[in-house]
Amino acid sequence: MTTETLATENAGRRAGRIGGIDLSLPVLAATAAFLALLIGLPMGWLAYYAVTDRAGAPTLVNFTTLASDPAFTEPLVTTLILCVSVAVAAAAVASPIAWLVARTDLPARRTIRVLMTASFVTPPFLGAIAWEILAAPNSGILNRWWRDLSGSADPLFDIYTLPGLAFVISCYTAPYVFVLVANALDRIPADLEDAAGILGAGRWRTAVTVTVPLVTPAILAGALIAFLQAMTLFGSPAILALPAGFHTVTTKIFSFFQYPPRPQLAAAAALPLLAVTVLLLTAQARLLGRRGYTVVGGKSGEPRRLALGRLKVPALALVLGVLSLPLMLPYAALLKAAVSSFPGAPFVIENLTWKHVNFVFVEFSQTRKAFWNTLVLALGTATLGTVLALVIAYLTARRAIAGSRILEFLATAPVAIPGIVLGVGLFLSYTRPPLALYGTLWILLLAFLTIELPIAFQQLRSSFRAVHPELEEASRILGAGRLKTLARITAPLLKSGVVAAWCFIFIGVVRELSAAIMLFTANTKVLSVVIYDLNESGDLGAIAVLGTVMLLITFAVVGFANWISGVGSGVRLRGG
Amino acid sequence: MAQLELRGLSKHYDGTAVVDRIDLAVPPGNLVCLLGPSGCGKTTTLRLIAGFVEPSTGDIRVDDKVLSAPGFATPPEQRGMSMIFQSYALWPHMTVADNVAYGLTLRRLPVAEIGRRVSEMLAAVKLGTFADRYPGELSGGQQQRAALARALIVEPEILLLDEPLSNLDAALRDEMRFEIRRLHDAFRYTTVYVTHDQVEAMTTADLIVVMNHGRIEQSGAPEEVYNRPRSAFVAGFLGGANILKGHAIDATRLNVGPGVLRCAESAFVPGDEAALSIRFHEVRVHATGGPDGDNRLAARVIRQTFLGSLRDLALELADGTVIRATAPPDLAVQANARVWIDLPPERCRPLPS
Amino acid sequence: MRSRDILLPSGAALVLAMIAGAAIAQPTPMTITPEMVAAAKKEGKIVYYTAVDVKVAEQIAKAFEAKYPGVSVQVERSGAERVFQRIGQEYSSKIYNVDVVNSSDAAHFVHWKREGWLAPVLPDDVAKHYAPAYRDPDGLFAAWRITLSPIAYNTKLVKPEEAPKSFADLLDPKWAGKIVKAHPGYSGTILTATFQIARDIGWPYLEKLALQRVMQVQSATDPPNKVVSGERPIMSDGTEYNALLLKASGAPIEIVYPTEGTPLVVGPSGVMKNAPNPNAARLFQIWSFTAEAQQQMVDIGALRSAHPMVKEPAGRKPLSEIKLMKDDPVEVDKQVEEIKARYTRNFKT
């Protein structure tokens, strides 16, 4: 058939305009409104409580009370010391490992990356509990070995100290630095280094003068995340600082909510955390904005790998040694606790027991509910959060509506809100009509959605930047509306980014404690809260069993999500 | 087939007019080329027509229905248009057939009919055997044809093409130019074609619109615009031309310094600053001879390049003005040689200021 | 008010009931009837907020479920002070989750009674057998368990002859850095014990104890764990029953009943007025005070019972042979904020 006949034959059935109204604008408006409410409402109540007294009259007395009370100022100073130590330690340890993995011929590089991810999946509070088993000054397994070996009466390491706390938090924040720096190193085009090489710089010199400066922003960004994590974590300090007789700001805020509750003080105490976060984020934006760092992100060939030569084995040993701190040692400790008949029982056959396993799966009435709640919330938040982040990332990446910058800000803002502060804010917002959500899973869903939104948004926005806008415009001009285009063209193209965002949220929800601890009720308990409860009564065996199962489930879900997306990736590969 | 009309169309970004008060009417079934250098506003004009961008002033009408005006734009999906993008924008996660079928699927046509029309269309663009391939598995020219097929199959009222050939190598570009024209002759959609390549424009267009700095410099049939450029810019951009500036002595004569040149056409206002243009190949170069002759000037060869079918010469006039000329390959002149050049009056086109 | 000369157990509960001014006539004692069981099964579950050790609570729950199949028990275990805060937080948001509550801080029941949150459920066994000191005259609650907070030490790390005999002994510099204790802001047992120690021995003792670099844990159930793990060889407070349970499992722990007297912690149970499962709640409450259930509690949980028909297992020092401090929930209720604040000042957490 010739084109002529085709043209004439179809002339009568010319497909015209596609009917129906454009739903996209209402959807966009709704998203913006939802986001504003989601973040604005709890922050508004928080601000209101911070500047009112119990009777609701405006006052600054909450701040003066805090500022003049050493019971609050001391934790504040402690927290700052903690944050700086963690940021420095995490960056100092993770950056070299990232470089070894991304830029040298270190053996087992893939495995190391996977192990780093595994330590990301480990909830920090579980790590803290495991490190109690390992490095409590007297009963800690490592300290016992140390005493037996050295004959010394003093412990090698006391986990119930500020350095101990900083160490444990660093273990579980270092992966953030690692991922950021390793990715940045992956993306540095080899020709930038070749350019230095051709000018006569040796390999090591190139690494120092070109490579390191290029990943400085990634290191800084990682250190910033480590800082913020250290500042906002609740579980680890509650587990390690309280026994040692000191508070951090988050544990202090939590204590303001114990009977008799003082929400005004809690709200006022939250503001320094917010202020520090906003300050840091602004500083970072300034710092990164000044230099043309977009080069990291250009297209790359296979990066050049430095031959380690004789240093190969020591380097690998070093990396594995570091990895044993967040992973091998804690999990070994947890597994031992899971089968020991009492805490610290010598590891001999007569002390082995199934009673903790039995307790968790047969006797403990919380187990099923907590697993169910956690799973529902994690799946729900991950799905909802991905969709929300997708829409916002679309709107901001494509500047589709006026005010998309505001959306961008709103979606990033929760980074500045520590979980426990958000928990306080949400509690104040949703324990009153018209939205009395407290006591339902919804309030936890909102909390998790807010907390996890920034990471999903960042992930998807960068994915969006990799999708040429013309691919979407081609769909629209052919008659698909914005939403249809988003669903049929953009989403499939973003698949790997979408799956990554989904997994990030899922993992984040499972390990979230600080907001959940403020918001749970008997029927809405999640695993992290149950584990935290068990820790307060010292039930290590049950914690070990629950923690291990929780981790296995997380791995299973994340693995499944990646497998599902892997089914489609063959197509993507072929599609180029 | 639809009539497309732009009236007083402008687009401002941060106070700068990227498109500046454009008026243009495209008769039904015509193929109009927007031609100009990068940054001239041609792509923005196209995106305005497509509805991706809302105008700052003016409006866009199709068959007298206003589709775009300030503060109002019918969304792209409701315009009944098609577009071919510079990047082709083929969806990498769909096969060629799926890509092509997309627009029909949106129109909820019966599956059997979609299948039939897709295979007809693929046959028309000679991609019949590639239906199940993914775009990544096609060559550049095949991708280009797939993009064409995807745009044509929905039988748009208006077809828009944005630099469709700029990513192809020279040989393919030649082939696809004629292919586009052939398909246009077959389907006769009202078509707007954006390009910076004058050869592409000459080959395909019914109407060429030369744009510069957001404005239309000149529009008309290819031959008319080529032969009768109305500005130095048009003359220079379309085909390449020497521009000689001077004082108008009378309606036809211009004093350009080294001599007085006469145009066959009278257009000058005596005493005004004005210019004339003459294309490179219209300058006749003589290795020997004297000053006598119509519009004859003395010149010195400052560079000569042998290009096989012709010689490209750079010549310096007495006052230092450099003009370019092409001469037959057998004209043997060395650098620094003194030559005479003829600028025939009928080739000298006046460019009134 | 030093009143150690008054015969133990005290009539505090009676006194507090009078103070609360409850003029309700004592309700009719209730027994378990087939209709009650049927109604409970229809509800299918009860939600049990408790401060007792979670493993003990779950075993009690399993015993109940075995007795009344079809009614499941959801155990919500936390420290008594957390349970109290939680109920307050939930009730102020009109969330009524809890059916039956057990606290190790009897003062909580003074508070809840004042708020009118408790339902009158007087189990037959309580009416018939319980001493007035261990029950509310209006039948709103009764002492479900009795917990002691003694001293304990790790037998591998401390020789019996060197072990402290009294609270005063704990101030010996040789125990610096070797003591673990729980927190009155979390545990009702410890709040009650802190009140009694402060009253009978005085705050200066606690202030000096704070200088001994004690390890601060939260729940009263935790110090025995820390003792057996060897993390700290001595606990200055903590639950007797957890120490007894650990000892029974072969862990190296021994209890010392201090010469000044051992803090006595009465842990009442009651049914909430807004219980979502009122019939099941009543059934659970009545059952849990039967001699059979109380005996199970003593056998399984190593707790002490106020039920006179319950037999102390062999080898366990009978309550009558232990010098006990006197409980006084009304006074605890008055002083709770001050005790917590003063404790936090001294112990920094």
Search tags:
heterotrimer; A: 576 residues; mainly alpha; MetI-like fold; globular; disordered N terminus; disordered C terminus; B: 353 residues; alpha+beta; Rossmann fold; OB fold (Dihydrolipoamide Acetyltransferase, E2P); 2 domains; six-stranded mixed beta sheet; five-stranded antiparallel beta sheet; 8 helices; 21 strands
CATH topology descriptor of the largest domain in chain C: D-Maltodextrin-Binding Protein, domain 2
Distance between the termini of chain B: 39 Å
What is the H/E order of chain C? HHEHEHEHEHEEEHHEHEHEEHHH
Greatest chain-chain interface?
A-C, 46 and 60 residues
Task: Please give the count of helices of chain C.
Answer: 13
Mean pLDDT of chain C: 91
Counting DSSP E segments of at least 2 residues, the number of strands of chain B comes to 21
Assigned CATH architecture of the largest domain in chain B: 3-Layer(aba) Sandwich
Q: What count of domains describes the coordinates of chain C?
A: 2
CATH class of the largest domain in chain B: Alpha Beta
Q: Could you name the ranges of chain C where pLDDT drops below 50 across 5 or more consecutive residues?
A: 1-11, 13-23
Measured on Cα atoms, how large is the radius of gyration of chain C?
20 Å
In CATH, the architecture of the largest domain in chain C is: 3-Layer(aba) Sandwich
CATH fold node name of the largest domain in chain B: Rossmann fold
- CATH homology group of the largest domain in chain B: P-loop containing nucleotide triphosphate hydrolases
Characterize the biggest β-sheet of chain C: 6 strands, mixed
Q: What report would you give on this structure?
A:
The complex is a heterotrimer of chains A (576), B (353) and C (349). Chain A is mainly α and 576 residues long. Chain A contains 25 helices and no strands. Chain A has helices spanning 3-11, 24-50, 61-67, 70-103, 109-121, 124-135, 141-150, 162-187, 190-198, 203-232, 235-244, 249-256, 263-290, 312-339, 355-363, 366-397, 404-412, 419-429, 441-465, 469-477, 482-493, 495-511, 516-519, 527-536, 540-575. In chain A, helix 2 (24-50) packs across helix 13 (263-290), helix 15 crosses helix 25 and helix 18 (419-429) crosses helix 19. The longest helix of chain A is centred in the C-terminal third of the chain and has 36 residues, at 540-575. Chain B has 2 domains: 4-227, 3-Layer(aba) Sandwich (Rossmann fold); 240-351, OB fold (Dihydrolipoamide Acetyltransferase, E2P) (Beta Barrel). In chain B, strands 7-8-9-3-10-11 form a 6-stranded mixed sheet, sandwiched between helices. A 5-stranded antiparallel sheet of chain B has the order 2-1-4-5-6, covered by helices on one side. In chain B, strand 4 (57-62) and strand 5 form a beta hairpin. In chain B, helix 2 packs across helix 3 (111-124) and helix 2 (96-106) runs parallel beside helix 4. Chain C is α/β, with parallel strands linked by helices. Chain C has helices spanning 12-20, 34-43, 54-67, 80-92, 107-115, 124-129, 188-200, 203-210, 222-228, 240-248, 278-288, 291-301, 329-347; strands spanning 45-50, 72-77, 100-102, 118-119, 141-148, 151-154, 179-181, 215-216, 234-235, 253-256, 264-272. In chain C, strand 1, helix 3 (54-67) and strand 2 form a beta-alpha-beta unit. In chain C, helix 2 (34-43) crosses helix 11 (278-288) and helix 9 runs parallel beside helix 10 (240-248). Chain C is globular.
